[in-house]
Structures are given as C-alpha cells and as structure tokens.
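Quick question: what would this complex look like in 3D?
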Amino acid sequence: MKFNFNPLRVSAAAFAIVVAFGCGGDKKPVIPEVKPVDKRESLDPEKAAIFKVGDEIISIPSPVQTAFLLKKSGVSYRNDMLNSPKNLSSYSTRFQRAVNLGVYGADLGYTTIYGQTADAMNFINSTKRLADDLGVTNAFNPDLMKRFEANMGIQDSLLTIMGDAYKESNRFFQDSEQEDVGALVLSGGWIEALYFTTVVAKNDGPESVKTRIAEQKGSLENLIKLLQQNAEEEEVAEFVSELIDLYYLLDEVESTYVWKEPTTDEATKTTIINSTTEASIKDEQINAISAKVESIRNHIIG
Amino acid sequence: MKTIKNLLIGAFILAAVNSYSQCDTIALICNDHITSGFISDGQMYRALLIDDQIAEFHTTFYGDAKYRIASCSGTTDGNLLFRVFDEERNFIFTNEEYLNAPYWDFDVKSTMNCVIEAQLDPSALSSGCAVLLIGFKQ
C-alpha cells in the first residue's frame, strides 16, 4: 500500500483513532479521506495528466541554490532586481503576504550569498514582518533575529539560520493545516529565483544561467500540482493560470535525459548520480520566458 | 449527545496534536543529520505510516550540487527505509543496503527530477511518523 507525504494524513489518522474507539455521533465531521495510491498507476507517467494532483507530495528547490549559481558563474550583484522592502506595506491579503514571504526569502538568500549585509538586514526585517502578519511567530522570533545579526558576514551560519526559519514556517503551515499558504511561500521564492536568472540571461548572461532556466519545467510542474490542491481562491487560481502559461513556454525547450548507472561509495556514504540532462534554450525562448516571468512577478510584488 | 460530540472533537484535536508533536520531535532529531555544511531546503516532509505503507514525494535535484537526504522515524536512527529513483523509475539508491543509514549524500552531475519513497522498517516499527529532510551544498 502506498501513501504520499501529506500532513493531512496525520489528522486523518488521528480521526481514525477516535472512530476506532467506538465513538459514534449524529454526523461525521468532514475529514479528508486517506486513500491508498495504486502503485502501478503512479509508476506510469503516461497515465497521469500533466497537472493531476492526486496526493503527490512535492519538494521545490531552494531559491538559495540559484543565488549560489549566479555567484559561482561570476554574475555581479544587482540590488535593482530585488523586491524593494518599501513594497511591504502594500501587502494586505493572505495571498500577497504569503508569496512575498517567499520573494523576500529569495532576496534575503541572494543578498546573503553576495555578502551584502545592509540589504540582508532589510530583507530579514521584511520577512519577519510578513511572517508575523501570517501568524508565524516562532520562525522569526527575537532570538533568531539576534542570531542573524550576530552572525552577519558568516555566510554558512546565516544560510543555516534562514533555512531553519523557513523550515519552521513550513512546519507551522502544515500543523495549522494551511498548506496552501506554505505552497504560496514556496512559489514566491521559486518565481523570484527564476526572475534573477531571466534578468541575467537577457543581458548576455553565462550559459550556466541560461541552462538553469531551461531546467525549470520539472519544478514548475511540481509547483503547479502543489498550488492546485488549494486553488479555490480567485487570486490563487489566477496565479496558477499564469504559471500554466509559463509551463507551456518551458515545455517548448528541448531537453534530453540519459540514464546512467549511479556509483555508490559506502565509506563516504555518497552516491554519485551519473545520469545527464542536456537542455538547450534559444534566445527567443529566453525572451518569451523572461517576459512571462516578469509579468507574473510584477503581479505578485505589486 | 452534545457532550459526547464535544468529547469526540476534543479527542480528535488531542490525537492530531499528539501526532504532530511526534512528527516535530522526530524532525528535531533528524535535523541533527543536516550537518557538514549542508543547508536545509527550508521544507519538512512528513507522513504518518502504518505497516507497509509507502510515502512518496517528487523533487528536482540541480546539477553540480551535493544533496543530503535524512530519513527518520521513532527516536532512534535506522527505522525508516528510503529509496531514490529517477523520473523514469530507474533505481538509484536505497539505504536498506547500508544498514538503514539515517542519511545519505548524493553528488548530482546534471539536473534531474527524482522520486523518493519512504517506508517504515517492519522489523523496527509497525507505525509512526516518517520524516524526510533535504539539505544541499554547492
């Protein structure tokens, strides 16, 4: 029997425990049912519609990884492509606060990796404000803020602190059954990181950055699945619709995957994944994707 | 009847909170494996598993990066089995072949989409919260 990672299952299992102890009632509360997934069906990608959600559990790459790539590729720091903390006061809806918590998180990661301490302080304050507005009081608590300030200039420590804070936020949204908000935070971070790469790529950026854009189809597919699980709100539905348009642009990028046997070294507890993906993206595709990303991002940041 | 209903709701909330607490405790223990320069991806993956249930999730690993997957259930290491496949379901790794190692590192040459399955080791646990954490370094 197969189940996918879903915090709702914990509630469902807890409900099952209550029922198992023989307590009846007039009316059963509406609780999401735990459904086993047929393994054969899930193994066959041909049988699944592109954006079918089911109960799949999704992981989105951290935007910090893209910031690392930019730095490693020799791209200069650009403050002008970040979302100004001045916009913070205009975020009044749950949607705006959630996606911009992700956006500012990506900006915070970017400024941290480039060692821009003054900008990083502005963004940690912005993230804290939005997190507070969303009720995530534990993640960016005074202790964490002090730790962040005390570790200014120590990149590894700052990134660890940030990772912990976002993990705590993620946990909070799961515990309070606000997975939709958690998904919006992830999507804000994802779109901001992609925005960085498109800005750089349009300005004659290095191949490594262009390739990173070409590689985003899988992540976007996962992101759309994640968001579609709770897309009843109009703002979210519109956002998903825009992301689907972006998906079709990314779908036109040629990509070839070649499977190769991995190599495992037990002594170092490491497996080297040797498979390769070759993606090639044309300039006109970069331009079209960049325009779409900019439009989505402008809509998010206001 | 109303009292029973209230008791039921209370019991449900209590059970759910306890289950979440169990997951949170395991996540804290598991977090100790995201060390050696690995940075958390900022997400926590968890599921309540019973018997042979398998939890599955989908992710993207970027090329030229190193990832660490930590898998935990219960309060000791080695209770959770995990398997990694590529998107075509080609087998990449299972910790079952390495004494249920609670974490493993992956050097990724080229960006790829992966599927990770997790399952309780039936010889250790018959039910419990499964937690997976992912760390990366460039």
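Answer marked as accepted. Confidence is low (pLDDT under 50) at residues 3-54 of chain A.
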